[in-house]
Amino acid sequence: MKSFFMSILFSGMLTCANAQDPGYPAAPAALQNVTAAETFIDTDPGIGMATAVPVTAGINISNAAATINLTGLSNGIHRLFLRTRNASGIWSITDSK
């Protein structure tokens, strides 16, 4: 009789243990290569219409170098903007410095 109650107790514990497993989210999508970049100063000419920055496709382009043409800028404070495009053709949010 004692073993019968122990088996019921053990079965109940297993049921409770399985019921408490959290639902894990799906794995995030794999990172995509950055395939294009563009910059503009002060005014956004539109996506794909700014000055192209040559980049080698890759996940990390933080070491990419670009020459920014400052000809014609007035004295004063200006903002430089950058955006990138991934392999799916989706442009990033614009970032300024």
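The above is record 1. Record 2 follows with the same two-line structure.
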Amino acid sequence: MQINGGGNLHVATMPITPKAEWHILKNLTNLDDVIGMREEINENTRIIAVKHNLSLIDLDLMLERSDSYFYDSEHLNAVGSEKVGCAIYEYLQSFDMH
């Protein structure tokens, strides 16, 4: 989908980590709930991308689920940020930017 100004709109799923110590320590929710919510958000993102003909960067499928990419259950660390940045860069290289 092209947006005003001529750019293209891309949407992305979220990488998911099996790490949930922070949530468990804070008694916010359990691991299955955290992963289930994120999987549901990712699936809805995929559905919206197809429905509206949007480019999808499926980071959840592009990256292995690894605790080594996160410093807690939600936030990417330096390694995870680099992996996501490289995945997005490689994906965008497939588009003709001219």
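The radius of gyration is 15 Å.
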